[in-house]
Amino acid sequence: MRFRWTFIAICLLGSLFVLFRPQEKDNTWTTPNIKLGLDLQGGIYMQLEVDVEDAAQQYVEEQAGTIKTTLESENFTVAAADSEPAKGIVKLTGVSKEGEDPQETLRKFYGDGWNITRTSSDIDSNNKINPGSDFTLTMRSTEKSRVENEAVEQTVYKIRNRIDELGVTEPVINRAMNSNRIILELAGADDVQRVHNIVKEPGKLEWRMMAYTASNANATAETEAQVLAAFGGQLPTGVRIFPYEVSPGRIMYVPLKEVLLTSQNLSNVFVTTDRNGLPAVGIALNREGGNRLNEISGQNIGRQLAVVLDKKVLTAPNIREQIGHSFVIEGSFSQKEAQDMVIKIRSGSLPAEVRILEERVIGPTLGRDARNQGAISAGIGLVLVILFMMYWYSRAGLYSVFALVMNLILMAGMLSFLGAVLTLPGIAGFILTIGMAVDANVLVYERIREELRIGSIPGTAVDIGFKTAFVTIMDANITTFLAAFILLLMATGPVKGFAVMLMIGIVSSIFTAVFCTRTFFLSYLERKKPETLSIWPIGSAASRNN
């Protein structure tokens, strides 16, 4: 008996400690450490979709340069490497190296993910030597699936990093099972536009040199058509047009050359201030990026170098001198805009476009009302169960009430220990568990009554009652637990809270309804040694005979 009571005491004290232990932000013992879900606290709910087709096309475009670089590192000459992202094709022209077949090298490095086809040979039908072989690499379906899956996983990771830097407490960011959709729950958040900017914008940072016309005149204009006209109606190869807000409400369009540097060349990015004390973004480049920028800026004194974030020009200053490894990006930024810019750049660019499929904003008042209604429902259910058990099973019903209270404490402690989030469906699971907890007691008590009716002494009746009902109790609870586990795996959002609470409740109720209640009976039988048990309805003949 001493072991039983010690074990129960350890479980209860451990649960209370976990539930009320002081937190860093609240160094008191009065606030329960239970995380409230979106529907109970209020906040923002979003369902996002990652454009995996866009991710695959970006990958093909990047691989064109990567494959060319790989061949050149193996001392092959490559005249050109082009891509057709929509078709998943990379085309190599003029690939040659004396004494070696380029196709073998391509198969060695890229044979697992690409189908490699030679489209022309370095020796033609007249046995004349061509400048090199041409190849077409087509991405395999398995490689495309891998790229798409990694794109979703990377998007989840990078969005989580961005949200963490916003300071949102306990965000829920999960990928919907085996899909390209992401569920985002930000309890307590209310700035919808800021969350939009954080989760949708890629955070792709680039440095590009200004493109100039043949007459060396600046081609910046107020419309894209005017920019095109300055180049004779057609942009040179590698030149693209980007919008540039030169002053509030005034947007110009700027022609820029190919990418010189990207966020991969950064070593640090931070919020700082410019010479006027206004918010700005500080940039520190790594050694490779710093050396490259130093060289480029030295060769282009007097020209404009544009900083582009998500296809929008942030600033395009004139280069007055060589630029070192660190500098400041200035602009008409607010403090929040500068912080968000740093968050997006620091987390890295998203691998694909992200679309918002569904969005809900739950106000704190609505969340508080739902929490209060859930608490009232749970309280009413608890009181009704207690009244029924006390009336129908007398003293044994009192043991069930004690076990039920312990069950609630253990459930709350386990919820806090696991870091699970309590949602409105979770409260429903909580209420359901109350009924399931006493259901086990009902099975045991009815079996004990049967033994008492046939003349068994109390000790024997209790022993047989618990042993025979145990199999039925375990069978019912294990099957329910498995169903809840499957629901946990398949469900999304608040429904997961129901599954978690149900699983926690099942484990806790088995312990309290079987182990704890039996301990109460054994302690009573050992101390009182009664001739019968108080397990009959109050006011019944059997109860009066007690």
What's this entry about, in short?
Helix content is 51%, strand content 21%. The chain is an alpha+beta fold.
Write the layout of secondary structure elements.
Blueprint: H1 2-20, E1 35-36, H2 38-41, E2 43-50, H3 52-73, E3 80-84, E4 89-95, H4 102-110, E5 114-120, E6 133-139, H5 141-166, E7 172-175, E8 181-187, H6 192-200, E9 205-210, H7 224-230, E10 240-247, E11 250-262, E12 266-273, E13 279-285, H8 287-299, E14 305-309, E15 312-315, E16 326-329, H9 335-347, E17 354-362, H10 364-418, E18 421-422, H11 424-453, H12 458-490, H13 494-528, H14 541-545
Parallel strand pairs: 1-18
Antiparallel strand pairs: 2-8, 2-17, 3-4, 4-6, 5-6, 7-8, 9-11, 9-14, 10-11, 12-13, 13-16, 14-15
Features:
elongated; five-stranded antiparallel β-sheet; 546 residues; 18 strands; alpha+beta; four-stranded antiparallel β-sheet; 14 helices
